[in-house]
Structures
1.
Amino acid sequence: MNSEKSTISVRFRSDFAEILEVRAWYEGSRLGTLTNRLVRSELQKVSRVGEKYIISKGSAEYDELVATGGLDESYYLLPEIDEIISFMPTNEGRRGTKLTKNKQVSLYLTEDEVSQLNRVVYAQDVFGTYDSEKILSYRYAIHGLLLNTELLKKQIHKERWLVPSRPSTKTQTSEAFAFWKG
C-alpha cells in the first residue's frame, strides 16, 4: 500500500551534516536516506509516548517534573532550545547571499508522521514556529529529533564536532570504520 507522502525540507549546518554524511557513507547510503530513517525512528518513539508526554528540557513543565521526581521513562525529552539552536545554520551576516555550506535534505513523511512532527512543534513552543493551527517551521523540531538519536548523542558528546573527513585511502577507510565502531 503506497500512501501519499509530504515533503519537508530542512537545512543543516555543514559540520552537523558531515556527521550524518560520514555515517551514511559507512552504511552505504546517502544523507537524505539516513536522515529520513533517523527522523522516522524518533517519530515512532514520539507516537508511543503520546502528546502529553513530549516535553523540552529547560521548560517549566520539565523543571516541575524534575523537582517533584515525576520524570520517568514514559516521557520523550527534547533537547533544550538553546542546544538545538547551537546546531542550526545561521546567516552570519551574509544577507542576500546563497550559503552553499549548508546542506538541504528533503524528508518524505506520511500523514501520520507529519501529525507526530506537529506535536513536537507544539511541545517545543518556539516563538514563530506556528501560528494558531498552522505550522510555519519544522526546523527546530527536526533538529531536536535528530539530536535525540543515539547516533548523534554518542557522536556529539564523544568529541564535540570532531569528525574524520571522507576517507580517500585504505588506511583512512580503516580509521573511519574503527571510528564508527568504537
2.
Amino acid sequence: MAIYLVLGASGKLGSSVASLLKSSGHVIYLASPDPPEADLISCDTSMWFRCDLSDPTDVFSIVSAFVLSDKVLDGIVNCAWDNSPLSSDGTMDFSVWSRALAVNLFGPLTLVKWLKSFGRLSERSKIVVTWRRDGLAEDAYPQLVSASCVRNLFWMSFPQHVVTVSYEDVLTKLPEILGE
C-alpha cells in the first residue's frame, strides 16, 4: 500500500485521480481549497488538507503534517490548476497573473522542495505534473506559458522524480507511471 498526495483534489481531475488511487488500495492525502467529494475522505486511508497553493502558510501546513507523522510519500499527483480568465480586452490583471503563477508553479514547487528537504519523498517517489493539452481558448497564451514553465521547472528541479502527463491521459497512464 503506497502513500500519495493529490493536489487539486476537489476538482474534476483531482477527484478522479484520488478515486483511482483509493480503489487501488492506496493511502491518499488530498489537498484543495474546497473539500473533495465526501466518499474520498470517509475512510481510514485518506485525509484532506484545506490548502490554497497560493498561500505559503497552507503549503507549509502540509509539510508540517508529514514531518510530524514521519510518513514518506511514494508520489504526488499535481492536478491543481488556476486557469484564470483573461479580461475582455485580452489582458490579464497582474494580481490574477500572480495568483495563477502561485497556484500553478510556486506553491507546488515549494511544497515538493520542502517535502524532499525534510525527507518525505523517497528516492523512488514520483511527482506527476498534469497539464492541459486541449480545451484552451486561442487567446490563452498566459495559461500555455504557465503550463510550459510548470513542466520545465519541475523537471529541472527534480529530474529523477518528475513525469509530466496531459489531463487527457493521466487516468489511463497513472498506473503505469506509478509502477502498478
3.
Amino acid sequence: MDIFWKVLAGILIAWLSSWITVRASLEKFRTERWWEKQADAYSHLLGVLHDAKEYSSKNLDAEWYDRALSKVDNQELLDRSNAVESEIERIMDVDSFYLSRSTIQRLKKYKASLRKAGTDNSGENNSWEVFLQDTYTATNSCLNDVMDIAKLELNVPEHNKGLLSLALGLLPLRSSSRKA
C-alpha cells in the first residue's frame, strides 16, 4: 500500500506541475500576442502620421524654393493627404481597441490642431505658408508624442528607442562600412 501512495503522489505532482506549466505558457502566449498586436497598431499609426506630413512638407518646399507643383502632383498629394486623414479616423475608431486612451486623446488634439491650422487667435485666416507650417508642426508633434506613448505602452526601455524606430520603419538602416 505504501507504494500506491508514492505512485499516486508522484502522478499528482506531475499532473499539477504540468497543469501549472501549461497555464503559464498560455498566459505568456496571450501576453506576447497582445503586445504584438499593440506594436502593429502603433507601427501602423506612426507610419500613417509620417505619411501625413508629406502634403505640407512638399508644399512648403515648393513655397520656400519657389517651385510650383504641377496640378497633377498637387492633386496626387491632396488625394493621398485625404486618404491619410481618413485612415487616421479609421485608426481612431477601429484600432482604439489596441491603442491607449492617451494615444486616442493625442489624436483628437491633433485633429483639433489641424482644424485651427492657418488661423490666428481671432480666427482669421493667415497665409497659405502659415497653414502649411501649422499643419506640419501639428503632425510632427503628434508623431513624436505618439512615439513616446508607444514606448511607454510597449515597455520599451529608453536605450532601445532607436531600435523601436528602426523596427517601425521610421529610421533608415545604416550600413556599417569601415574605412581601411
4.
Amino acid sequence: MQTGGVLFLDLSRAGTGWAYSFDLDTLIASQPESGVWILQGDKWSFGRTWASLDNSLAAALKLYQPRKVGIEAPLPARAQTTPESGRLALGLTATAEQTCYRFSVEPTLVKCEVARHKVIGRAYAAEDEKRRGLDVKSAIVAPWIRQRGWKISDHNSADACVGLAYMLGWSARRPSVRRAA
C-alpha cells in the first residue's frame, strides 16, 4: 500500500463508508481499499458516535497519511428527515473536519450529486427506476461499481468509492451528441 493518496468518507452512524487510493491510475487499475466503520453509540448518544468516528478516522489518517481527504457533504437542514438526523449529520461532519485538522490535512466537502454526475454521468434515479423501487444507490452507484469489477458490498462504501473517483479526477465518458443538419 502506497501512502499519501486520497481518502474519501461517506459519513453515517449506521456505517461510515470509506475508500482510499493513491492516484487515478491506481484506481483505474485496481479496486480501491475500502470498508465501513460501524460507529458506536445510538440516537441518544451522539457524543459516543462522534468519538467513535474520531478514533476510526485518526487510525486511517495514521495508516494512509493521505494528502487529501474528501467528505460527502451533509444534506441541507431542509432535506433532513428529523432534527436529530440533522444534528447527527452536522456533528459527524464537524468531527471529521476537526480530526483532519489535528492531522494537518485539509478536508474537502463534496456534494454527492456533483460527484455522481461527474463520475457516473448522472446523479438521480430516473422515474422508471423509481417506479421499480430503485433508489439512487441501487439504480446508479451499484451498477457503476459492478462495471468496474469491484466487490463492494456496502452502499456507503460504494458511495465513498464514487467520491474518491471524483476527488482523483475520474470523468464519465459522454457519448457524442449528433446535431441535426
